[in-house]
Design a protein that fits this description.
4 helices; UCP019883; transmembrane; DUF2818 domain-containing protein; elongated; transmembrane helix; single chain; mainly alpha; membrane
């Protein structure tokens, strides 16, 4: 796999992983949620866990394409965290705004 393909693959994986906590109502993506729904703290913990998973995938892809891992400072990780937050924005908006509006509109059509 070339470097360009690894970058595209990583961006697609990061986009999907960043949005999963807000698109899934299951806890840790497999356990049934409580009756009142999944807590926002759980969603944030899942999002942070997905950031770590994507980081590990990125390290694996870097090692596979480059043959070594580059040493990164704290600035690199802060920028990556900010980028991961930007990638999570569609799922966050869907969970907190769009889903409610779509449900309301669906109820109006049923009536």
């Amino acid at each position: 796999m070339g470097t360009g393909a690894a970058i595209v693959l990583l961006m697609i994986v990061a986009l999907i992983a960043a949005n999963l906590p807000w698109l899934s109502d299951r806890i840790a993506f497999f356990a049934a949620p409580p009756a009142r729904g999944k807590s926002e703290w759980i969603r944030w913990a899942e999002w942070l866990a997905m950031f770590v998973v994507v980081g590990l995938i990125a390290a694996g892809l870097e090692y596979r394409t480059q043959g070594q891992l580059q040493v990164q400072g704290w600035e690199f990780w802060v920028i990556n965290l900010a980028l991961f937050a930007v990638l999570a924005l569609p799922g966050f908006i869907y969970c907190h705004d769009l889903r409610r509006r779509l449900r309301r509109q669906y109820r109006r059509r049923e009536s």
